[in-house]
Structure to design on (723 residues):
């Protein structure tokens, strides 16, 4: 029988009233009703003003002050008519979270009456006091000012709570001195850099009409749901988002019966609630299903422009967490809430394209399109090879370290999966050079008469961190709790760099009189010679690959965040970001500092909490049980029965391991190394985490021996299966 507090949790779950649900409405009615989108602007603004806004959205640039004033006026009228009393500048600091600065529309007049006010200046430049947002030393606190300004490519929207409405404006967040303090600014810059080089390449291969090129993103979100009554009894879930202790349930995911199984009704009610809110916010929720682990689910939207998709992804995470609470559950976005079953990732599907040439990663149907595709795809291959360690670094967090490298998620070694057909095409290109004859015969094989590529090649490789999936790449190493901005910035920037390389080469060769197909072919050959070693179609989990990747192919295996983050300090990475105008050296260094600090903070909190839970929850329970055991052993003796002390012995020895490890952990927490961020990260990775692991072994061992009626912490089986 479970302990009294766990029993009480059970009861409250059984008696929980069903969450109130909203009446169904048709999609057309729900869709974007809370978004001040282009359609609403068109209706509210004079024609020429709207045209000017629309142009800025499409082509970038700054809003003219008079236009900004009229937009602000229209926004205010719409928002206040919907009941909004406050507006918020929403921005995305370096912590993966979303931040908001709320202000009232209210303005008090000389005679004491009030009016509502919202000007163009407030719209394009708010001024939150940002002094406590991590900025890696860019701003000293005395110059605490940070500015937020509307990102016109991302529409404003209304956020409703049961008691009111807030008008939200997505913004960039920049320092007094002009440095980006957020994740949106570099994303916009990386897109601009990629657009510049992509347009250049498209023009070189013969297009005259080339629209702005944008990156797209569709992010699949995995998450766990656990009843709040259990979470309330798990300080580790509350504070760190993962279980620091807990033995695997006898039934885990071994039956594979959860994946794509029927969605439990309570969960489906929750999902529908989330999806309804997503639709009103103009977020195109598209798929939902159970995931591999019990209690694990997934949601994916239809893909959108990367910048908007990123804002929508942040909103989705907020909606998931808030809505779960409404339904008496906690939504866990941590990458590894439970040991022994799958963790959660966020597959970032990414492509680039424009209005005139379409999706540039679509293999297309004609040879010419194939050449275009092969060049863009080749540029990705080159970029991933040159900057694989950077891609590892942008997914490096304390939480994600539990997935990467474990046997469930993509390995920490970054390689590219192309699928057998495409892999073969690039192999032929490479071999064209090996025979030393870029003749017409080989050309035909490589570019001119390429077979039509099937849009969705049947084969998928679930073990690859970076996979081509028919018309896009899927970056699968991203953590479930992460903002997608960092990964998108990295992908756009390395693509910009490689497109620049391809365009430079083509330009030189064409200038020297080579034909376009010949020039394209030899650039591709060179790419495959120098970077083809990053292409891998086998099992990414296997030991053989780990060995081969590092020893033979020279790829890096950066196992932990402590190993990976220093990539941000490498000279080639600095060059990359600075030359593409995406991050200045100072901005890049500040990101290293902030992410290193986040890693250290996360692990230190876990270590302190593990210590506290072991001492104040587990140890007392163990001592109570040992006391009971010892008196019943006395009874047995008194009755003349032979007492069996084996059990008590086992418990006592694990208890000793617990106490000794607690002492060591306490000392280690109290004595962080003096010195730089790297030393501090190493201390976390190589001292604190192993001690927490040893502590966990003791606690988990005890959980299997101590009387269930005393054990204070809800078990895996309860958290994963009771709903
Ligand atoms: P799977 O689980 O097979 O990877 P899903 O349907 O769950 O597939 O998710 C695929 C994601 O990729 C969706 O968000 C989808 O909108 C997105 N996607 C599809 N095409 C593109 C594209 N061209 N660019 C970016 N994302 C895309
Ligand atoms: Mg996927």
């Amino acid at each position: 029988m479970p302990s009294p507090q766990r029993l009480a949790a059970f009861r409250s779950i059984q008696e929980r009233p069903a969450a109130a649900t909203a009446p169904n409405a048709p999609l057309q009615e729900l869709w974007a009703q809370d978004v001040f989108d282009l359609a609403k602007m068109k209706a509210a603004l004079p024609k020429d003003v709207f045209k000017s806004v629309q142009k800025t959205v499409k082509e970038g640039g700054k809003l003219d002050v008079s236009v900004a004033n009229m937009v602000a006026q229209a926004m205010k009228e719409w928002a206040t008519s919907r009941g909004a009393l406050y507006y918020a500048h929403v921005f995305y600091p370096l912590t993966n979270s979303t931040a908001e600065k709320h202000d009232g529309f209210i303005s008090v007049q000389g005679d004491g009456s009030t009016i509502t006010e919202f000007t163009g200046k407030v719209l394009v430049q708010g001024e939150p006091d940002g002094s406590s947002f991590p900025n890696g030393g860019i701003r000293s606190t005395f110059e605490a000012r940070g500015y937020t300004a509307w990102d016109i490519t991302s529409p404003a929207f209304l956020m409703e709570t049961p008691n009111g409405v807030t008008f939200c404006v997505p913004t960039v967040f920049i320092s007094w001195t002009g440095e980006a303090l957020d994740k949106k600014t570099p994303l916009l810059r990386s897109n601009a850099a990629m657009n510049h080089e992509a347009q250049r390449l498209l023009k070189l291969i013969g297009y005259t009409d080339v629209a702005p090129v944008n990156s797209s993103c569709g992010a699949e979100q995995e998450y766990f749901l656990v009843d709040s009554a259990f979470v309330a009894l798990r300080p580790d879930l509350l504070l760190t988002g993962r279980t620091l202790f807990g033995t695997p349930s006898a039934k885990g995911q071994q039956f594979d019966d959860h994946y794509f199984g029927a969605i439990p009704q309570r969960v489906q009610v929750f999902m529908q609630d989330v999806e309804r809110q997503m639709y009103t916010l103009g977020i195109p929720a598209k798929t939902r299903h159970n995931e591999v682990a019990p209690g694990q689910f997934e949601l994916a939207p239809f893909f959108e422009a990367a910048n908007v998709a990123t804002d929508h992804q942040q909103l989705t995470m907020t909606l998931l967490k808030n809505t779960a609470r409404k339904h008496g559950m906690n939504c866990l976005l941590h990458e590894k809430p439970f040991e022994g079953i799958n963790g959660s990732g966020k597959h970032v599907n990414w492509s680039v394209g424009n209005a005139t040439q379409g999706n540039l990663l679509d293999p297309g149907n004609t040879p010419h399109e194939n050449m275009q595709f092969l060049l863009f795809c080749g540029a990705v291959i080159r970029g991933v090879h040159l900057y694989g360690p950077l891609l590892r670094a942008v997914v490096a967090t304390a939480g994600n370290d539990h997935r990467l490298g474990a046997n469930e998620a993509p390995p920490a070694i970054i390689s590219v999966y192309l699928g057998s057909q495409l892999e073969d095409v690039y192999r032929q290109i490479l071999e064209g050079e090996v025979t030393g004859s870029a003749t017409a015969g080989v050309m035909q094989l490589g570019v001119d008469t390429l077979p039509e590529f099937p849009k969705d090649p049947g084969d998928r490789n679930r073990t690859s961190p970076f996979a081509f999936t028919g018309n896009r790449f899927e970056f699968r190493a991203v953590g479930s709790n992460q903002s997608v901005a960092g990964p998108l910035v990295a992908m756009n920037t390395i693509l910009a760099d490689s497109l620049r390389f391809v365009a430079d080469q083509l330009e030189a060769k064409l200038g020297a009189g080579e034909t376009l197909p010949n020039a394209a072919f030899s650039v591709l050959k060179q790419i495959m010679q120098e970077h083809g070693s990053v292409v891998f179609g086998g099992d990414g989990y296997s030991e053989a690959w780990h060995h081969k990747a590092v020893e033979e192919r020279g790829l890096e295996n950066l196992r932990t965040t402590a190993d990976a983050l220093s990539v941000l300090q490498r000279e080639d990475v600095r060059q990359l970001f600075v030359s593409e105008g995406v991050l200045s050296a100072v901005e890049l260094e500040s990101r290293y500092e902030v992410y290193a600090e986040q890693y250290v903070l996360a692990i230190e909190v876990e270590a302190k909490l593990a210590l506290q839970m072991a001492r104040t929850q587990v140890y007392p329970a163990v001592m109570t049980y040992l006391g009971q055991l010892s008196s019943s052993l006395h009874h047995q003796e008194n009755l003349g029965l032979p007492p069996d002390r084996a059990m008590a012995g086992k418990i006592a020895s694990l208890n000793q391991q617990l106490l000794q490890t607690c002492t060591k952990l306490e000392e280690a927490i109290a004595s962080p190394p003096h010195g730089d961020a790297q030393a501090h990260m190493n201390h976390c990775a190589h001292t604190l985490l192993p001690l927490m692991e040893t502590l966990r072994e003791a606690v988990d061992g005890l959980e299997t021996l101590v009387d269930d009626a005393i054990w204070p912490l809800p078990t895996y089986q309860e958290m994963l299966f009771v709903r």
